[in-house]
Write a structure and sequence with these properties.
Blueprint (H helix, E strand, L loop, with lengths): L1 H26 L9 E12 L2 E14 L4 H12 L8 E3 L7 H5 L2 E8 L2 E8 L2
Antiparallel strand pairs: 1-2, 2-5, 3-4, 4-5
């Protein structure tokens, strides 16, 4: 009688463990590629009519969702010039900057194209 009880208890424990493992897999992030990639600080050259491009420093550039650091400079320059590249748009930034960046007068900014996001900090106008 005891052996039947142990077998049933063992089966119940295995079923519970399998259920927990399946839940952990379902709740875990789908792809690590969705994590943000830090691109550092950049100086963006904003084109001006009849003059040299204006060098605009941006800090804490981050890309995610498939956007690349290489394309971030062109996208940020186009948005700041008022002529965003096709599909890209400026959206309200819902993240906080470090205290040091806030004291420098930098503001959080974000541009988006589908699931691609580029976050950066720049001086307000």
């Amino acid at each position: 009688m005891k052996s039947k009880l142990h077998v049933r208890r063992g089966a119940a424990i295995l079923a519970c463990a399998a259920s927990l493992a399946a839940t952990a897999i379902a709740v875990a992030p789908v792809a690590p590629a969705a994590a943000a990639t830090k691109c550092g600080n950049k100086t963006i050259k904003i084109p001006r009519e009849g003059a040299k491009p204006y060098p605009y420093p941006v800090k804490a550039v981050e890309v995610e969702g498939g956007a690349t650091c290489a394309e971030s400079a062109a996208v940020i320059a186009s948005v700041l010039a008022g002529e965003p590249l096709p599909g890209w748009r400026s959206v309200p930034a819902h993240y906080e900057l470090s205290k040091k960046m806030t004291e420098e007068g930098l503001l959080p900014q974000m541009v988006k194209k589908g699931s691609k996001k580029i976050k950066f900090a720049g001086h307000g106008g």
